[in-house]
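in:
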């Protein structure tokens, strides 16, 4: 295995189990690694520290193990089994008790597998590789999934075309790595807290459903009874279904994607709701700006990531400020605003300060009632706090 030698004193982060090695910390590379190769990282005095995938960029090595050879045939079986154990511990694998048969099985650094996402949809695993190393490991990962789940595994679908590094010369074509003979469809109906949702991983965004908002959808439901609800950037209507189930007076769902809105209508229908719901295929920000003041008692503001890298941070913060100012100014007196950011480069303090600035622009009295993050199946490695990417606030607006 190719060896990476760190500069003197730069081993401290690895001794604290941080899963990244930055290029500026490297003193010497003994060999000529290609992007995605497994490499061993050593301190300046030659002490072995960890092994991981080599990549080109500021993050030069993503650590896979501090004590095990990642090339071992049992590596992915062990790591995926450990990830499954976490989901068992929080009750997500017991459908009878949880009313849920979809969850994130692997959450990158949070499960010790940087660059890998796997979502479980009632027997279908949808995989996304965010690094060359994980992309090149797909076959091994698929084999490990088949060993762990056996006949309960219906399919493994690779959806890495939008996540793997496009400049690495990879053949980025989405498709099935495994499909049971009796499985044909590209979509499936799943349960989340007893609510029914249609998930299409072939045509939908991300892996087909935003599983990270499961707990926050339930929280919206706990406040929605009797309220007029506006769900902006609704995607396939997760928040809308929970609000309707809780007895909302009315729900308006807004998204610019016609495909997403078609799934919203199907999800509302299979849960038995209809007359209290309206779908609007429109730009969410424009729809909000044209809405009547006080027309809604509860708003969900859950936009896509406005900043995917630090170079876009300033523009993103301006967009969050404008959007939240508009929502706060429009919600009815005594109304609630659930507002979120899924941009990893926007930390929770910066997000809260941005919402504070938006509130100040409106001149209305605003209180923070609660704070939110991603669901428990999206764990944060305690040595890698950067993994806490989803931030949310519940605002009470007088």
């Amino acid at each position: 295995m190719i060896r990476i030698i760190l500069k003197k004193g730069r081993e401290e982060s690895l001794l604290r189990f941080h899963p990244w090695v930055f290029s500026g910390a490297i003193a010497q590379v003994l060999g000529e690694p290609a992007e995605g190769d497994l490499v061993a990282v050593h301190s300046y005095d030659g002490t072995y520290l960890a092994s991981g995938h080599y990549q080109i960029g500021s993050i030069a090595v993503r650590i896979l193990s501090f004590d095990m050879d990642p090339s071992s045939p049992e590596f992915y079986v062990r790591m995926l089994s450990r990830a499954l154990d976490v989901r068992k511990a929080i009750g997500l694998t017991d459908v009878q008790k949880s009313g849920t048969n979809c969850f994130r099985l692997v959450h990158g650094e949070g499960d010790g597998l940087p660059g890998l996402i796997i979502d479980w949809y009632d027997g279908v695993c949808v995989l996304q590789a965010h690094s060359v190393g994980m992309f090149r490991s797909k076959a091994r990962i698929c084999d490990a999934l088949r060993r762990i789940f056996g006949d309960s595994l219906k399919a493994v679908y690779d959806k890495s075309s939008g996540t793997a590094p496009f400049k690495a010369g990879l053949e980025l074509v989405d498709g099935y790595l495994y499909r049971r003979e009796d499985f044909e469809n590209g979509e499936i109906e799943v349960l989340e807290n007893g609510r029914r949702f249609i998930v299409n991983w072939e045509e939908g965004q991300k892996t087909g459903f935003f599983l990270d908002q499961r707990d926050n959808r339930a929280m919206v439901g706990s406040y929605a009874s009797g309220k007029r609800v506006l769900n902006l950037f609704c995607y396939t209507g997760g928040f809308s279904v929970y609000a309707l189930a809780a007895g909302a007076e009315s729900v308006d769902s807004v998204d610019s994607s016609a495909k997403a809105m078609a799934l919203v209508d199907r999800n509302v229908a299979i849960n038995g709701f209809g007359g209290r719901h309206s779908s609007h295929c429109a730009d969410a920000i424009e729809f909000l700006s044209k809405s009547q003041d006080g027309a809604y008692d509860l708003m969900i503001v859950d936009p896509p990531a406005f900043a995917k890298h630090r170079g876009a941070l300033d523009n993103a913060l301006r967009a969050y400020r404008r959007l939240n100012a508009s929502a706060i100014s429009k919600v009815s007196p005594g109304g609630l605003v659930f507002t979120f950011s899924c941009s990893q480069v926007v930390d929770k303090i910066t997000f809260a300060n941005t919402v504070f600035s938006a509130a100040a622009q409106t001149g209305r009295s605003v209180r923070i009632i609660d704070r939110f993050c991603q669901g428990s199946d999206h764990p944060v490695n305690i040595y890698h706090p950067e993994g806490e990417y989803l931030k949310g606030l519940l605002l009470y607006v007088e």
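note: The mean pLDDT is 95.
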